[in-house]
Write a structure and sequence with these properties.
Shape: globular
Helix content: over 70%
Strand content: under 5%
Number of strands: 0
Number of helices: 4
Structural class: mainly alpha
Distance between the termini: 17 Å
Oligomer: single chain
Radius of gyration: 10 Å
Length: 59
């Protein structure tokens, strides 16, 4: 599984469990054990990440 897909899947699960507003980029990076900089290499911001998660669920 590619890192981008792993970020999308894991973040989607966190947001379902705790809510979109509650989950921060710090939470995501800490949970995955990667830096925020790595996340920002794949996604412009949190909104871009949320949009990617929604697109994955729709497809």
């Amino acid at each position: 599984m590619e890192l981008r897909d792993k970020i999308i899947e894991h973040t989607g699960n966190l947001m379902i469990q705790f809510g979109i507003r509650t989950v921060t980029m710090d939470d995501i990076s800490r949970d995955l054990g990667i830096s925020k900089k790595t996340i920002y290499q794949y996604f412009k911001d949190k909104k871009d990440l949320v949009n990617s998660i929604v697109r994955e669920h729709i497809d």
